[in-house]
Amino acid sequence: MNTKLWDRRNALRLGALGGLAAGVLGAGALPASARPRFFDLRTDARTLYTGAPLSSETIQQSFAFDPDRGRLFVAQLLAGSPGKAGDLRVTEMDRRGRILGWMTLLGYGHAVSFGVHRGPRGLDLWIEGRVNDNGYGTVLKQVPWRHGTTLDQEDPRACDHLPVPGAREYTCAIDHQHGRMAIAYWSGVDKRVAVLPLEEVLRGRAPDPIADFSRPEGLGTFQGYALDGDALYTLDGNSYSDTNPTPGNTYLGRIDWRSGELVERVHNRTALDLDFREPEGLAIEYSRHRPPRLYLGFASGVVGDRRSNIYYLER
């Protein structure tokens, strides 16, 4: 089912419910559970950590959180390998930016975005795999986390998934709170995003999408995305350069996946004093003890000594 069908099918029902609620409670009196809940993209970000070295010397590409224990995993291309080889290093970090463990994944992809899920067999990374000639993964891989392990494409411990039939490239982001997975993919014609029921993907199925839409125009260099409720948050921009001096061109955006429209895009001024400052990675973390957080990452440093920097907005 595509997004436009979703809208036509639900517009009258949602409008009627909204009108009924407003009539009963009065304007502006909707209960908190019925109000839209979005991150304010204009607020100043707080610091999780800065200047942290990863287990390889390259630029971080993306990161994700263990939904149950808050563990943080950062993905990057493996130092010493050609970029299009798709060799990845995934590092587990603590909240102070200290290395706790790592894995090496050979021939996987670019790791623009990935997810983490804890299932019956333990903690799994859901990350692109089977790299193509352009350096991007052509399947979604379910990889068991094992510190110090190297896995190639044929390792039986890693499972291939094709939840979007016909997709030629895959990345994903998981919304654990609402039980959905977003998959940004290349259709062979355009770059698209599908929103799928998470449980069906975890079972190895290719379910009918809740929504499927073309990535909207108006975004710069795509550097990450995160799914939360009705919102797909995006990060775009480039590192500092002669043509992109401070304050840079980093933007946070919000797409309403029900319509596929980019409804908000805000220039981000986090950590303007970083050297290099390339936006890299976006992720949501839920916790029982605090409001949800939207994390954004930046790479800094010089070739051979790149550093990880992660900040967050609290809802």
Q: How would you describe what is shown here?
A:
The protein is mostly beta strands and 315 residues long. It has one domain (46-314): Tachylectin-2, Chain A, CATH 2.115.10. The protein has 2 helices and 21 strands. Strand 19 and strand 20 form a beta hairpin. The longest helix is centred in the first third of the chain and has 23 residues, at 3-25.
Keywords for this entry:
315 residues, mainly beta, Tachylectin-2, Chain A, 2 helices, disordered N terminus
Shape: globular
What is the CATH topology descriptor? Tachylectin-2, Chain A
Q: N-to-C terminal Cα separation, in Å?
A: 31 Å
CATH architecture: 5 Propeller
Task: List low-pLDDT spans.
Answer: 1-36
The overall average pLDDT, rounded, is 90
Count the DSSP helices: 2
What is the CATH C level class, in words?
Answer: Mainly Beta
Query: Which structural class fits the helix and strand makeup?
Result: mainly beta
The largest sheet has its strands arranged as 2-3-4-5-9
Radius of gyration: 19 Å
In terms of topology, how is this protein built?
Elements: H1 3-25, E1 46-52, E2 60-65, E3 72-77, E4 88-93, E5 99-105, E6 115-119, E7 122-131, E8 137-144, E9 150-151, E10 159-161, E11 169-175, E12 180-186, E13 191-197, H2 198-202, E14 211-214, E15 222-228, E16 231-236, E17 251-256, E18 261-267, E19 278-285, E20 293-302, E21 305-314
Parallel strand pairs: 5-9
Antiparallel strand pairs: 1-21, 2-3, 3-4, 4-5, 6-7, 7-8, 8-10, 11-12, 12-13, 13-14, 15-16, 16-17, 17-18, 19-20, 20-21
